[in-house]
Specification:
alpha/beta, Rossmann fold, four-stranded parallel beta sheet, two-stranded antiparallel sheet, 6 strands, 9% strand, globular, binds adenosine-3'-5'-diphosphate
Length: 296
């Protein structure tokens, strides 16, 4: 069974300039040669920035009414395949995408911008990027690694935070990831850059902005329904969006839908850690116009 296949945590190694585990590099040739279609929509994020949330919103916007059975029987990670993932017992991300029969295809990636298959840019695909402030992102990633057997062992919080600052994380440094897509947006106009904090503050407004970017004329009452159905509590209860159907996560350690808040970092960072983090952050952040909120 899957649990015996996954009896130990994977090692991290250097790969194309970032840290990786084999689950995201095993199919590299097919990932790099992936053929995008012009109407594909790429959902790109650093892990734990709100990927599932925005994936679900997009899925509801496109398929919420036309395919009701999709909503009750297909988990979100199969509706919106994770392009570079090769997980035990299920088809590869590339295979899952190529098996999609609906249009547009919604595709998830955590790859930093320089490793995104070039076909997406050549086809001028729409890209939705979600970014989350570094402190909450680090906390969320820590709990995720604790409960998810395909991730490396996170160790204790203090060591983990140091690794986060050093960029020794699966999918590379948070700093380069958020800045990389931010810089890309300056020259690639089909990229919509969103913030997790804005989504928590006013989901309806963010859904409206998404619709204008995507060119959708979804009626107000439909948008309101989507806002309601994609609320944290609703997604936590919903078996198709809460990841309870995937065998690699141990919810008794920490649930996938954990807190969904802005500012939970305050429950984790010591005063000393926070000072050190802020100082390092100023040195690391290369994009002066990219501003995050650590509370709302
Ligand atoms: P926390 O661990 O802080 O709770 P991803 O989907 O990129 O893996 O991100 C997961 C994070 O987004 C988790 O953060 C999860 O709780 C949060 N999240 C998922 N759906 C959400 C929603 N509808 N509202 C608020 N937060 C949500």
């Amino acid at each position: 069974d899957v649990s015996s296949m996954l009896s130990s945590r994977p090692e991290m190694f250097d790969f194309e300039g970032i840290s990786m585990v084999h689950y995201f590099t095993d199919d590299w040739e097919n990932v790099q040669n992936f053929q995008a279609r012009p109407d594909d929509i790429l959902i790109a994020t650093y892990p734990k920035a709100g990927t599932t949330w925005v994936s679900y919103i997009l899925d509801l916007l496109y398929f919420g009414n036309t395919a009701p059975e999709r909503q009750t029987s297909i988990p979100i990670y199969l509706r919106v395949p994770f392009l570079e993932a090769v997980f035990p017992k299920i088809p590869t991300g590339v295979e899952l995408v190529n098996n999609l029969s609906t249009t547009p295809r919604l595709i998830k990636t955590h790859l930093p911008v320089q490793l995104v298959p070039k076909s997406f840019w050549e086809q001028n695909c729409k890209v939705v990027y979600v970014a989350r402030n570094a402190k909450d992102n680090a906390v969320s990633y820590f709990h995720f690694e604790r409960m998810n057997i395909i991730q490396p062992n996170p160790g204790d919080w203090n060591n983990y935070l140091q690794k986060f600052m050093d960029g020794k994380m699966v999918f590379g440094p948070w700093y380069d990831h958020v800045c990389g897509y931010w810089e890309k947006k300056q020259t690639y106009s089909n990229l919509h850059y969103m913030f997790f904090e804005d989504m928590v503050e006013n989901t309806a407004r963010e859904v409206e902005h998404l619709c204008s970017f995507l060119g959708l004329t979804t009626p107000t009452e439909e948008r309101e329904k989507i806002t309601k159905n994609s609320h944290f509590d609703a997604m936590k209860q919903n078996k198709m969006t809460n990841y309870s159907t995937i065998p690699i996560m141990n919810f008794s350690i920490s649930p996938f839908m954990r807190k969904g808040k802005v500012g939970d970092w305050k429950n984790h960072f010591t005063v000393a850690q926070n000072e050190q983090f802020d100082k390092h952050y100023k040195e690391k952040m290369k994009s002066p116009t990219l501003k995050f909120r650590t509370q709302i």
